[in-house]
């Protein structure tokens, strides 16, 4: 491993695997009556699982998802509302475009993961518009 440390890779891997639960729980909480939005959120979760697997191939370690983050996000939907929670997640996904730049520079196979994060942010922005406009 070069400039990106194994610790950084494992932290990202854990974040990606935890995001699977985040999007599953979010789909149940936000989109029960919106089948297309439900499917979109579940697909984002599936992508996050694929990202975790890409990182697993680099780290050589299998991590288990932790429910903490999904529980926090679920609570946020009650505390600040569904719209603001989705906006926050969209911003986080867009930020990952920059965060993952050095990862993709060192591990070119992670470029698709990096680009997916930006797409996820755009999808979440679209969900906000559809649900709350």
Task: Walk me through the structure.
This protein has helices at 6-30, 35-59, 68-79, 82-99, 101-106, 111-132. The protein has six helices and no strands. It is globular, with a radius of gyration of 15 Å. With 133 residues, it is an all-alpha fold. The chain is 81% helix and 0% strand.
Question: What are the defining features of this structure?
Answer:
133 residues; 6 helices; 81% helix; 0% strand; mainly alpha
Mean pLDDT comes to 96
Cα gyration radius (Å): 15 Å
Quaternary structure state of the chains depicted: single chain
- Unreliable spans are none
Structural class, from helix and strand content?
Answer: mainly alpha
- The percentage of residues in β strands lies in under 5%
Q: Terminal Cα separation, in Å?
A: 46 Å
Number of strand segments: 0
Global shape = globular
The number of helical segments is: 6
Following the backbone from N to C, one meets helices and strands in this order, namely HHHHHH
Largest sheet, in brief, is: none
| Helix share, percent | over 70%
Q: What is the secondary structure topology, with strand pairs?
A:
Layout: H1 6-30, H2 35-59, H3 68-79, H4 82-99, H5 101-106, H6 111-132
Would you summarize the structure shown here?
This protein is 81% helix and 0% strand. It contains six helices and no strands.
């Amino acid at each position: 491993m070069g400039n990106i440390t194994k610790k950084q890779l494992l932290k990202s891997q854990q974040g990606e695997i935890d995001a699977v639960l985040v999007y599953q729980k979010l789909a149940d909480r936000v989109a029960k009556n919106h089948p297309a939005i439900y499917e979109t959120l579940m697909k984002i979760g599936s992508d996050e699982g694929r990202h975790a697997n890409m990182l697993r191939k680099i780290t050589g370690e299998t991590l288990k998802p932790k429910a903490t983050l999904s529980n926090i996000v679920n609570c946020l939907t009650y505390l600040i509302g569904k719209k603001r929670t989705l906006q926050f997640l969209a911003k986080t996904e867009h930020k990952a475009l920059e965060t993952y730049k050095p990862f993709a520079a060192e591990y070119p196979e992670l470029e698709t993961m990096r680009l997916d994060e930006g797409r996820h942010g755009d999808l979440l922005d679209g969900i906000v518009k559809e649900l709350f406009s």
